[in-house]
């Protein structure tokens, strides 16, 4: 079932999409959209242009956005099998997938986008103090021994978490090695 686009898009984004679709003679356009804190599409980039029946999905752009959007020139917003396949891929990436009509007045939400949560950053210094002499862990054990490499490892894990990075950490021997990306 389709809905009014004003529920999902800021007015200036609707105008921009209308103009871009018109500039490409009403053919299909693939857009990569970003959401604001309220979960509303606040910006789009036109990433690919197609014909009256299809448009390629530009994967580099689609990985950098919150929602994938394209138009159906005929006005029937029912997703095709190709749309379903793209929507399935989008949902695996926590992205939404929308289909709009050419005047961007109606939207069919195939997959709702996942709204970003503002995660609290870990205080890297405080994380290390947890494992230091006098820290919470040291008062729990009579045999506690501070190990600088473990403190450093914990701080690297916290730093990777804060930048939403990927890290590979090894501490099996008590001497930590880490690789964060």
**What oligomeric state do these chains adopt?**
single chain
Widest sheet, order of strands = 1-6-5-4-2-3
Order of helices and strands: EHEEHEHEEHHEE
Largest sheet: 6 strands, mixed
Give me the count of strands.
Answer: 8
Distance between the termini: 42 Å
- Find the CATH superfamily of the largest domain: Cytidine Deaminase, domain 2
Please provide a written account of the structure.
The structure is a single chain. This protein is of the alpha+beta class. The protein has two domains: 110 residues, Cytidine Deaminase, domain 2 (3-Layer(aba) Sandwich); 57 residues, no CATH class. 28% of the residues lie in helices and 24% in strands. The protein contains five helices and eight strands. The strands form two sheets. A six-stranded mixed sheet has the order 1-6-5-4-2-3, with helices on both faces. Strands 7-8 form a two-stranded antiparallel ribbon. The longest helix has 15 residues. 28% of the residues are buried.
Key phrases:
181 residues; alpha+beta; Cytidine Deaminase, domain 2; 2 domains; 6-stranded mixed β-sheet; two-stranded antiparallel sheet; 5 helices; 8 strands
What layout of secondary structure does this protein have?
Layout: E1 2-4, H1 11-23, E2 29-35, E3 41-49, H2 59-62, E4 67-71, H3 81-92, E5 96-100, E6 106-111, H4 124-130, H5 148-162, E7 167-170, E8 177-180
Parallel strand pairs: 4-5
Antiparallel strand pairs: 1-6, 2-3, 2-4, 5-6, 7-8
Summarize the structure.
The protein is an alpha+beta fold and 181 residues long. 28% of the residues lie in helices and 24% in strands.
